[in-house]
Design goal:
Oligomer: heterodimer
Distance between the termini of chain B: 62 Å
Shape of chain A: globular
CATH topology of the largest domain in chain A: Rossmann fold
Helix content of chain A: 25-40%
Shape of chain B: globular
Radius of gyration of chain A: 24 Å
Radius of gyration of chain B: 22 Å
CATH architecture of chain B: 3-Layer(aba) Sandwich
CATH superfamily of chain B: HUPs
CATH architecture of the largest domain in chain A: 3-Layer(aba) Sandwich
Number of strands of chain B: 15
Distance between the termini of chain A: 64 Å
Strand order of the largest sheet of chain A: 11-15-10-5-8-9-16
Number of helices of chain B: 7
Number of strands of chain A: 22
Helix content of chain B: 25-40%
CATH superfamily of the largest domain in chain A: HUPs
CATH class of the largest domain in chain A: Alpha Beta
Strand order of the largest sheet of chain B: 11-10-9-12-8-1-6-7-13
Largest sheet of chain A: 7 strands, parallel
Number of helices of chain A: 11
Structural class of chain B: alpha/beta
CATH class of chain B: Alpha Beta
Chain lengths: 398, 260
């Protein structure tokens, strides 16, 4: 039977596991470790700590991908929108190259769309050894069914060991379907990826419980190992125009392009020119901004820094900015190089959406505002006074 | 029109915190709530029923106490609640969860639309909605922010994208995942609360939904947690106060240094 087991003959009652369990699931009953199965999350912490006597074990009688060792190479799903390869793809390519070099295998990209064949070279310049191109007018708009069907088919034929996919609207929709069709593991929103050189596993680290804790996930017995990664988590791969690679155009018959869904219209409506998830600098406003008209001041600061404007839920709910600009748990998760929080108190729901930013600058009147606990820099003061001064000063020095 | 709304009971992550000494998660006293995104799914399901007739079934997988979220769904206008609960499901990752919920949906059988919240706030994966659609082999529209029309077996809806939205049309039966913009959920009515209290929740075990044993729970889950750890705390920040102009100059100088 699968599950967590305590061998009472081996347990010496040392209580280390009780201390190690982050979920309060371990206790001592008759001086032996006891697992509360309702609380246990099978996180492995107790097993790790019980290394001396090995009294605790998690048994997984899982299935296996046949011929697992024949799966080689790291793939990247090269998402394009309107014929433009998304910047997050180049970030994934940088990471894929690093992982592939550790494993001494190739990097390949899957590029699907209409009239996109000429973009394959860009992917090679960014580190791909091979690009599978599926170019068909029926792939002009992203459609879940044909994209997932073709992706699954390419994987079955070519057997990569791992695939990195952008954690975007498109990426998350398609890769979830692929994972089910292939019955393999998928880990969402990885913030760290590495290779366990001994076993060749992809070590996938991601935040859990609202970012309060990090978990490293493995899919030991299934190939490929699928992972999604958000924007700005990894560094973009550098361009090397001398790099050579193979472009393989793959043709499919019409049955592969069948879709029950069709796209009737595509509408762009991001008010400032930059999508906040892709911005390097975000200037965000909260309740203390007091009104929609005051966001102009944030736009000016954002313009000087080549950034975008975000907002807290409080400001969105007031109708001061459109929902597409909301940062936080019910909005977008962002990790720009610089995040400037203006008049945002920093409720936990907001913090989980921006706390992985490289540099956080907080401007708030209230010195006890929680935003200062995550800020690298802060100014205690009135946003209406500080923000224009900041804009002016940045203009002078940049 | 019959709707199935898939919901999840989650810990209120905003109340989960780390014990500064033991570095463990403090979960004592943390409430269990309906996943915030699922509230929009429930509301949308109830609105469709009000417009087109039929019924709304709320479905969840979880421990026996997860029946609380089904009762909440009924108080908000859902007609029935189905709880899939069994020790055999313990340790399910998103693949096993998608499969288990799909088997329950196959048993419910008569449905036109399945609605899920865009993601659950405890795992944040957004994988189970599309996972169910793929398991059942039905089409999906993810990140729906507005349903425009349902007519002649077709649904037209706006799907939120990074740059705006697109209008997609697909065939019923289908699965939708919804974002916050789709509606403003109502509060439970007194009548709804009374109904929820006395409602009989349907409980299904693994044997009731059938399905292959090696696709359930730990056995059906390719992913496993290998290690968990507390992220390193952010270093104490530099906070300036006093004269605003002076503070701004110092701040900009400090940033200039690290940019170099």
């Amino acid at each position: 039977m699968s599950g967590i087991k305590v061998d009472k003959n081996k347990c010496i009652g040392c209580t280390l596991c009780v201390k190690a369990c982050p979920f309060g699931a371990m206790s001592m009953v008759d001086k032996k470790a006891f697992v509360d199965l309702d609380k246990c999350q099978l996180c492995n912490s107790c097993v790790e700590t019980c290394k001396v006597v090995h009294a605790i074990e998690i048994i997984r009688e899982t299935t296996r991908t046949p011929d697992m060792e024949k799966y080689k190479g790291i793939w990247v799903f090269a998402e394009q929108r309107k014929g433009v390869v998304q910047p997050v793809v180049f970030e994934l390519l940088g990471k894929a190259r690093e992982l592939a070099d550790k494993l001494k295998v190739d990097v390949a990209c899957v590029l699907m769309g209409s009239n996109i064949k000429d973009k394959a070279e860009d992917l090679i310049h960014r580190g791909a050894d091979k690009v599978y191109v599926v170019d068909n007018p029926k792939l002009e708009h992203f459609l879940d069914e044909p994209y997932a069907r073709i992706m699954a088919n390419l994987i079955r034929k070519n057997r990569p060991e791992a695939i990195l996919c952008p954690a975007t609207v498109v990426g998350r929709s398609v890769i979830s379907r692929v994972a089910v069709q292939l019955r393999v593991g998928l880990t969402a929103d990885c913030t760290g990826l590495d290779i366990d050189l001994e076993n060749g596993y992809l070590m996938q680290t991601r935040p859990a419980f609202g970012g309060n804790i990090m978990a490293t996930i493995l899919a030991k017995y299934h190939r490929p190992q699928l992972a999604t990664v958000r924007h700005k988590v990894f560094k973009e791969a550098a361009v090397d125009l001398k790099r050579k690679g193979v472009v393989e155009v793959v043709n499919y018959d019409n049955s592969f392009f069948v879709s029950r869904t069709k796209i009737l219209k595509v509408v762009d409506e991001v008010t400032s020119t930059v999508n906040i998830t892709e911005a390097n600098v975000i200037v965000s406003g909260g309740r203390a901004m007091g009104g929609a008209e005051n966001f102009k001041m944030l736009e000016e600061l954002a313009n000087v820094l080549n950034g975008a404007v975000g907002a807290s839920r409080a400001a969105i709910d007031e109708g001061w900015m459109p929902y597409s600009h909301q940062v936080g748990q019910t909005g977008k998760t962002v990790c720009p190089t610089v995040y400037i929080a203006c008049g945002i108190s920093g409720q936990i729901q907001h913090l989980v959406g921006m706390q992985s930013s490289n540099i956080i600058i907080a401007i708030n009147r209230d010195p006890s505002a929680p935003i200062f606990t995550v800020a690298n820099y802060g100014i205690i003061g009135d946003v209406f006074e500080v923000v224009p001064l900041l804009t002016k000063r940045f203009k002078e020095v940049l | 029109m019959n709707i199935i709304v898939c919901i999840k009971q989650v810990p209120d992550t905003t109340e989960v915190r780390i014990d500064p000494i033991t570095k463990n998660l403090v979960r004592e006293g943390v409430k269990s709530i309906v996943n915030p995104f699922d509230a929009y799914a429930i509301e949308e399901g109830v609105r469709l029923k009000e417009k087109f007739g039929g019924k709304v079934i709320a479905l969840t997988m979880g421990p026996p106490q997860a029946d609380a979220v089904l009762r909440e769904a009924i108080s908000l206008g859902c007609d029935e609640g189905v709880l899939v609960t069994d020790r055999a499901f313990a340790g399910s990752d998103t693949l096993a969860t998608s499969y288990t919920l799909s088997k329950a949906i196959e048993k419910i059988k008569d449905y036109d639309i399945i609605i899920c919240g865009k993601q659950a706030v405890d795992g944040d994966t957004a994988q189970v909605g599309p996972g169910i659609a793929a398991t059942l082999d039905i089409p999906q529209i993810t990140y729906v922010r507005k349903i425009d029309e349902i007519k002649d077996g077709l649904i037209t809806a706006e799907r939120a994208t990074e740059d705006g939205y697109e209008i997609a049309q697909t065939k019923l039966p289908c699965l939708l995942t919804v974002v916050k913009e789709v509606n403003v959920p109502r509060l439970p009515s007194l009548k709804g609360k009374m109904k929820a209290k006395s409602a009989v929740i349907t409980m299904w075990k693994a044997a009731d939904i059938g399905g292959e044993e090696n696709r359930l729970g730990l056995k059906g889950s390719p992913t496993e947690v290998w290690k968990i750890f507390t992220p390193p705390p952010r270093p104490q920040g530099k906070i300036y106060e006093g004269d605003a102009k002076e503070a701004v100059n110092q701040l900009v100088d400090a940033i200039k240094v690290i940019n170099r």
